[in-house]
Amino acid sequence: MRGFRGGMMGGGGFRMGRKFAAGDLQLVILALLAEQPRHGYELIKLLEERSGGFYVPSPGVIYPALTYLEETGLAEVEAEGTKKLYRITESGRKQVEENSSMIEMTLGKLERIGEKMAHVRRIFDPESRGPESYGREREEEAFPEDKSEVVAARMLLKSALKLRYPWSKDEAKRIAGILERAAAEILQQPKQD
Among 24, 30, 110, 124, whose Cα sits 20 to 30 Å from the Cα of 151? Predict the structure, then answer.
């Protein structure tokens, strides 16, 4: 599909830089307008929320797309003071229906990336994690006074392992080698208090 490529954030993620091809973004905007009429700024915030902050389109991307949708008769605009409220037209609804599988896949990817971004934030911000997350109670029992960067690194390692599991024999061998090398490197230095 245009605008996507696999491999990032566990596969099937967005490519870096431009996240959508123009036509894909226009279809996503139409789908969001099909839910309810919206202002351009609302669309920006909604895409940011659904992607967990990963995709925050600029006004320079959203407003030209809205103008195009208006000019092609897929959306109409209603002035509300200095703001414009965009609504989908019947032609726009037809476009959404004809492209519903692509739209669902795109919005699904946005939401999955949003979930993964929230997961990564929890890993790097120990204060935001509750005791129920990822067996933290057991972690605190093993290292009760640890408030260092090691906590975040351990959580990141656990997350990486969970994302990779289940693994093949070759992958298990590769991962075990990485962990063994890391343990050996940690043990090379004399313990410092």
Answer: 110
Q: pLDDT (tens digit, 9 = 90+) per residue, 84-116?
A: 999 999 999 999 999 999 999 888 888 888 887
- CA gyration radius for the chain? 23
Rounded Cα distance between 130 and 42, Å, is 31
What token pair was written down for 51? Answer: 């992607």
DSSP 73: T
The DSSP letter of residue 56 is -
Tokens of 173: 């061998």
Q: Which residues pair with 77 in a beta bridge?
A: 86
* Cβ(33)–Cβ(87) below 8 Å: yes
**Exposed (0-12), middle (13-18) or buried (19+): which is 181, by Cβ within 10 Å?**
exposed
- Closest by CA to 69, choosing from 52, 49, 54, 87, is 87
68 versus 143: which is more confidently predicted? 68
Dump pLDDT digits (tens) for 52-73. 888 888 999 999 999 999 999 9
Going across the sheet that includes 75-80, the strands are: 38-39, 83-88, 75-80
Place of tokens 């992958």: 171
